[in-house]
Structure formats: structure tokens, C-alpha cells
Amino acid sequence: MEVMRNPVCLSSGVIVDKRSYLDANGNRRFTSCPITREPIKAEAYPVNSMRRQVVEWRVAMFDKAVELATKLEAGIDEYSRICDLAESILEDIGEDTYIHRARRLAQLHLQAIAKVQDPLKIAKIYERIMRTTGNVEERDQFIADEASKLFTGAWKALQTNELEKCECFIKAVEYCKAKKFRIASELQMARLNLTLAKK
Predict the structure, then answer these.
(1) Residue 158 needs a FRET pair 20 to 30 A away by CA distance; which of 7, 39, 65, 126 works?
(2) Residue whose C-alpha is closest to residue 82's, from 95, 65, 102, 67
(3) Strand partners, 8
């Protein structure tokens, strides 16, 4: 069972989630009420008060997930699951609307970055920090320094012949470059990819 995101009221008076009523193209999934079985009109009306309650509940769940992740001293799997839950909630409620919560999650990730093994996930953490930090000069310098560590990680993995790990780091570096992080030059990337190709 999934929590409603966008409650709408059908002509029968029954409230359903908009995703349940309309498909991706905006077409109705059913023409009779799933509860009363009576025919329903095509219109569905938003239930704004319930939507606010849903958002408030999701925000509370986000806060609990972040608080739990902060206190968690277990392994990376539990931490990752809780952070993934917080990420999905933040995505649902809107990171731009709840920028202070996005910043909290970014800071939490930053504190626990040593636990994160996936370079692409690390790059995404840097991206969130970049979006939520106010001081542009400090942010840019921090991101440049941290993102450069991914490039260094790629070289180290290549030198120790850990090719899969190197490829993972390269994907993270490319992700950072696509997001306009100041990071390795094109020449450095070309050398790294050429060396990897030779192996």
C-alpha cells in the first residue's frame, strides 16, 4: 500500500490518488467508482486540505529518517536504506520548496561520506551540497576539491588494476563534469580513458 500523493475526489464522493485514477497520458483508468461501482464523471477534483496533510506527513517522515540516520551507528546498508527513503521523500515534496531540509540531508551525507562506497552516489551528494549552499565562493572551492578526489580515486583504482572500480569513478567524474563542477581537464580525462582502454 502506498501513501497518497495527490488526492482527488471522484463524482461518487470517493477520494483516490490522482495516479490511480489517471494514467501517464491523462486518460482515466476506470469509468466506475472502485468502491461504489456506480458510473463516474470524467472530472476529478483536488482535495487540497488532504494534500496538505499528506505533505505534512511526508515532511515528518523525512525528518524522522534524517534523525534516525544521524543516530545510526550500524553498517552502510542500513544507513543507505534510510537515506534512500529520505531522498525519495524529498523528491516527492520538492527539494526546491524544502531547501533547508535538502541542506540537512546534504550535511548528513557529507558527515558520513566515508561510509559511501559508490562514487556516483558521492557525486550526487556533492551536487546537492552545491545546490543548497549559499556562499558561492566557498561552495565552488569545496566542490572542486571534493570532486577532484573522485578523479584521484579513478587513477588509484587504475594503478591497482581495479578496472570496474575505475570505470565507476570515471562515471562519477563525467557526472560531475556534466553538472558543471570544476574538475579534471579534458586532457586528464582523455589520458585516464586511454590508459583504461589499454588495460
Answers:
(1) 126
(2) 65
(3) 16, 46
CA distance readout (Å), 88 to 2, 52, 62, 151: 13, 18, 9, 28
**pTM, rounded to two decimals:** 0.60
Which residue reads 534523525 in cell numbers?
67
Q: How far apart are CA 185 and CA 147, in angstroms?
A: 12
Residue 117 has pLDDT above 70, yes or no: no
Assess contact for 69 and 115: CB atoms under 8 A. Answer: no
The per-residue pLDDT for range 48-70, each reduced to its tens digit, is: 999 999 999 999 999 998 888 87
Q: How far apart are CA 85 and CA 79, in angstroms?
A: 10
Q: What is the rounded distance in angstroms from the CA atom of residue 129 to the CA atom of residue 181?
A: 12
Q: Can you give the three-state secondary structure of 12-63, one letter per residue? A: CCCEEEHHHHECCCCCECCCECCCCCCECCCCCEECHHHHHHHHHHHHHHHH
Range 169-186 average pLDDT = 68
pLDDT digit string, tens, across residues 75-84: 566 777 787 8
